[in-house]
Design brief:
The chain contains three helices and five strands. By secondary structure, the chain is an alpha/beta fold. The two termini are about 25 Å apart. About 25% of the residues are buried.
Length: about 120
């Protein structure tokens, strides 16, 4: 017997996929590679169309990118994060973030979980 309604059930953890850790049981995988919407336009190694930054600054720079993108209500990044948060909170699929760096994936996961925590259930609207 399921004691949780579909909107109250605990969300499964979001998995992280990296070049070193490729196994996943997720049904939906989202790319956060350098140059992608979720990954941002910067990298630790030279890539076309990306700003090269030192490894120690990657997580902080990426987090600033996510915050700035989310402040703009019309930003494609905000729309993507909102959609991921809704899927995470109310969907039935397990999610995974595929990134070249685990810190980038962790930033995205924390953003998704934080946004999801603020969403009202369809019953409350």
């Amino acid at each position: 017997m399921n004691l949780h309604s579909p909107t109250q059930r605990p969300a499964p953890p979001i998995q992280i996929i990296t070049p070193r850790r490729r196994e996943s049981t997720a049904q939906l995988e989202y790319s956060a590679h350098p140059g992608s919407l979720l990954g941002g336009a910067f990298s630790c190694t030279p890539r076309q169309g990306c700003q090269t930054i030192p490894r120690l600054q990657l997580a902080e720079t990426h987090l600033a990118y996510l915050r700035a993108g989310y402040k703009d209500k019309t930003s494609p990044l905000r729309q993507e994060l909102d959609q991921l948060a809704r899927t995470y909170r109310f969907g039935h699929n397990r999610l995974a973030v595929y990134a070249h760096d685990e810190d980038i994936a962790q930033n995205i996961i924390r953003a998704i979980q934080g946004i999801a925590a603020t969403l009202s259930t369809p019953d409350e609207e």
